[in-house]
Design a protein that fits this description.
It comes from Paenibacillus hodogayensis. The protein is an all-alpha fold. The chain has a domain of 195 residues: Orthogonal Bundle (MetI-like fold). The protein is 72% helix and 0% strand. It has 14 helices and no strands. Helix 3 crosses helix 14 and helix 4 runs parallel beside helix 7. The protein starts with a helix and ends with a helix.
């Protein structure tokens, strides 16, 4: 009886904390159906007076010349290659650090890890100057090319930790069967790395999808704007901001990340747990 009562108390506390955490999203969704007067009114009821999808239709039009359909396409053009190349490069570099011995291995690994200590604000100016000389400004190259060369040390470290947790006897058995290093990676280790791979892909997708600062620095043309820049532009398009439209577009903006997380949360949680415990 006591155990059952304690369990009920735990569930009740979880429900309460869950509602507190989800409440901002619920308010954001319901605010997309309200007028400005309702949103900023004294009463500030959580439920709108009338449920109407007009804010979604009007907000989707964007600036008129470019709609949120264009911003969605631009964001996918930036995010998908970045995620794919980040996963591929992190796997290769992580496999190299975890399974091979080469000169200055520890030094190079230490340098890579030390770059995690550098805040983005410190390196943004050198990166901007470099990309300017390369002629990559106002394009998606500043996001995609670094992903090709494994310039995200957090993901490399995550893959290294996961590879180190896999028994080396698997490699030796595969070599006895005639597999080379690349075959061992693709046929033996990668199928076991699904949790880590999903974690890398999910992290990079969400971080790149929600990135505003770097997109603002490197992208200038409105026709290449991502969703985050499109949302910010909606606040500057008119003297009086239609907050219901901004809320509606914000809801549509976060939907892909939420859907992706719920579909991959099993592998995501397992990947974070295993990479944190194994080493």
């Amino acid at each position: 009886m006591i155990a059952r009562r304690n369990r009920l108390i735990q569930y009740a506390l979880l429900v309460v904390f869950g509602i507190i955490i989800v409440y901002p999203l619920i308010w954001l969704f319901l605010a997309s159906f309200k007028t400005n007067d309702e949103i900023f009114g004294v009463a500030n009821n959580i439920l709108p007076a009338n449920f109407s999808w007009k804010a979604y239709a009007a907000g989707w039009k964007g600036s008129g010349q470019f709609t949120y359909g264009d911003f969605f396409i631009n964001t996918f053009k930036l995010v998908i290659p970045t995620v794919i190349f980040t996963v591929a490069s992190s796997i290769l570099v992580g496999y190299g650090f975890a399974r091979f011995k080469f000169p200055m291995q520890n030094l190079l690994f230490s340098i890579m890890i030390s770059t995690l200590m550098l805040p983005n604000a410190v390196i943004i100016i050198p990166r901007y100057i470099l990309f300017k000389h390369l002629g990559w400004l106002d394009s998606y190259y500043p996001f995609i090319v670094p992903a090709i060369f494994a310039c995200y040390p957090f993901f490399v470290f995550l893959m290294v930790q996961f590879f180190r947790g896999l028994p080396k006897e698997l490699d030796e058995s595969a070599r006895l069967d005639g597999c080379n290093s690349f075959s061992i990676l693709t046929r033996i280790l990668l199928p076991l790395c699904k949790p880590a791979v999903f974690s890398v892909a999910l992290f990079q997708f969400i971080w790149t999808w929600n990135d505003f600062f770097n997109s603002l620095i490197f992208i200038n043309s409105i026709k290449k704007y991502t969703l985050m820049l499109g949302l910010r532009m909606s606040l500057d398009a008119q003297a009086a901001v239609n907050w219901d439209q901004v809320m509606a577009m914000a809801i549509l903006t976060i939907v892909p990340s939420i859907v992706l997380f719920f579909f991959s949360q099993k592998y995501f949680v397992e990947g974070i747990a295993t990479t944190g415990l194994k080493g």
